[in-house]
Amino acid sequence: MDYNQISFQLAAVTRHAGQFIRQEAATFDRSHIENKGTHDLVSYVDKETEKLLVAGLREVLPEAGFITEEGTEGAERAEEFNWIIDPLDGTTNFVHGLPVYCVSVGLIRGQELVAGVVYEVVRDECFRAAKGAGAFCNEQPIHVSDVPDLNSSLIATGFPYTDFGLMDDYLKVLGAFMRGSHGVRRVGSAAADLAYVAAGRFEGFFEFNLNSYDVSAGILLVREAGGRVTEFLEDGDPLFGREVVASNGLVHQEMQELIGQVWRK
């Protein structure tokens, strides 16, 4: 199967969904916000975008199933191929008018990521990757940065917003990165964070309590751009592991060692 060709088709479907989000952003009314949980927002834009994606992706790979954030009716998992969909990563940014939010879609075969796209809507940047074919932004090749040490690095993270049980440990880790790097940024979209690591804008990214649909495409982007992605303290599978450390590879060990000083499982 030609995963690179599938990634081209995926990019087209994702861009189309992004156009819908861009149109709705111009007139969005906060009265349409729903709460899935504490501080966990969803709107009709998330749901309608997911439906658009499911319909478009069925044409790209009819035999594939779906792992979706919003649970679109009829979008069920399959045995071999599955699309992992986050229709609007950065919903809180979107509803507050902050211009960083993405469509993120990854394709897995079994447990292996084989294609992925992160489309950053406002910047009109389409980050695309396929297994063994490299990573691209608007069809220009991208690569992780060559910064060799954490002290010279810019690091991204995401703040806890629903699960505060590990808040004390997280704040200790955050403080250590603040002291040991050029700075820490919180963009508000894990998909964008990972795409930015792939593009060399950040040297590293860490966050916990993530879902597969937050990170699927971004993990592949970083790897295909020459970087490394693992769990916090181990080299386990970050796709379903709920925690992610991504880097240019050069600072990865430093990041894991720093986290390991205070993090408890």
Automatic annotation (TrEMBL):
<dbReference type="InterPro" id="IPR033942">
    <property type="entry name" value="IMPase"/>
</dbReference>
<dbReference type="InterPro" id="IPR020583">
    <property type="entry name" value="Inositol_monoP_metal-BS"/>
</dbReference>
<feature type="binding site">
    <location>
        <position position="69"/>
    </location>
    <ligand>
        <name>Mg(2+)</name>
    </ligand>
</feature>
<feature type="binding site">
    <location>
        <position position="89"/>
    </location>
    <ligand>
        <name>Mg(2+)</name>
    </ligand>
</feature>
<dbReference type="GO" id="GO:0007165">
    <property type="term" value="P:signal transduction"/>
</dbReference>
<dbReference type="InterPro" id="IPR000760">
    <property type="entry name" value="Inositol_monophosphatase-like"/>
</dbReference>
<comment type="similarity">
    <text>Belongs to the inositol monophosphatase superfamily.</text>
</comment>
<dbReference type="GO" id="GO:0008934">
    <property type="term" value="F:inositol monophosphate 1-phosphatase activity"/>
</dbReference>
<feature type="binding site">
    <location>
        <position position="88"/>
    </location>
    <ligand>
        <name>Mg(2+)</name>
    </ligand>
</feature>
<dbReference type="InterPro" id="IPR022337">
    <property type="entry name" value="Inositol_monophosphatase_SuhB"/>
</dbReference>
<keyword id="KW-0378">Hydrolase</keyword>
<keyword id="KW-0460">Magnesium</keyword>
<dbReference type="GO" id="GO:0006020">
    <property type="term" value="P:inositol metabolic process"/>
</dbReference>
<dbReference type="Pfam" id="PF00459">
    <property type="entry name" value="Inositol_P"/>
</dbReference>
<keyword id="KW-0479">Metal-binding</keyword>
<protein>
    <recommendedName>
        <fullName>Inositol-1-monophosphatase</fullName>
        <ecNumber>3.1.3.25</ecNumber>
    </recommendedName>
</protein>
<feature type="binding site">
    <location>
        <position position="214"/>
    </location>
    <ligand>
        <name>Mg(2+)</name>
    </ligand>
</feature>
<dbReference type="GO" id="GO:0046872">
    <property type="term" value="F:metal ion binding"/>
</dbReference>
<feature type="binding site">
    <location>
        <position position="86"/>
    </location>
    <ligand>
        <name>Mg(2+)</name>
    </ligand>
</feature>
